[in-house]
């Protein structure tokens, strides 16, 4: 059993929260491996150059990550009062989401399984 009053426990839990600006995209219809190709390219870069990289990247995941990066920059500017010119991508990662299972008919009455993978993409920014 937890010690202390319920309000005290909540206050302590909220004090440990991460205050860095971030944005998360859940259930993105792209596999983790394909999303990581784009995320590896922007990790550690400043926000402006990272935005330029994903804008001109031909991969499908880059369109999703571009929108997510713009959202994280807007969160930093509006919620935390940070300067967009000083921001950089501190963390970015993709976690495995649920998999949609589909069946493809094959020769001689067989059926092959097709797995349509999803991912949860997170971008965390910080100020230099």
From TrEMBL:
Keywords: Ribonucleoprotein, Ribosomal protein, RNA-binding, rRNA-binding. GO terms for molecular function: rRNA binding; structural constituent of ribosome. Gene3D superfamilies: Ribosomal protein L22/L17 (3.90.470.10). One of its GO terms (cellular component) is cytosolic large ribosomal subunit. GO terms for biological process: translation. InterPro entries: Ribosomal_uL22, Ribosomal_uL22_bac/chlpt-type, Ribosomal_uL22_bac/org-type, Ribosomal_uL22_CS, Ribosomal_uL22_sf. Residues 9-21 have a biased composition (Basic and acidic residues). PANTHER family: CHLOROPLAST 50S RIBOSOMAL PROTEIN L22-RELATED, LARGE RIBOSOMAL SUBUNIT PROTEIN UL22M. Belongs to the universal ribosomal protein uL22 family. This is Large ribosomal subunit protein uL22. It comes from Lacrimispora xylanisolvens. The gene is rplV.
């Amino acid at each position: 059993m937890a010690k202390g009053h319920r309000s005290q426990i909540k206050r302590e839990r909220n004090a440990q929260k991460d205050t860095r600006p971030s944005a998360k995209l859940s259930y993105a219809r792209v596999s983790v491996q394909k999303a990581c190709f784009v995320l590896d390219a922007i990790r550690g870069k400043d926000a402006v150059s990272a935005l330029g990289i994903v804008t001109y990247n031909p991969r499908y995941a880059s369109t999703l990550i571009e929108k997510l990066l713009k959202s994280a920059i807007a969160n930093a500017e509006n919620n935390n009062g940070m300067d967009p010119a000083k921001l950089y991508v501190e963390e970015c990662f993709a976690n495995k989401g649920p998999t949609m299972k589909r069946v493809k008919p094959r020769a001689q009455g067989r059926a092959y399984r097709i797995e349509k993978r999803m991912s949860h993409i997170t971008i965390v920014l910080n100020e230099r």
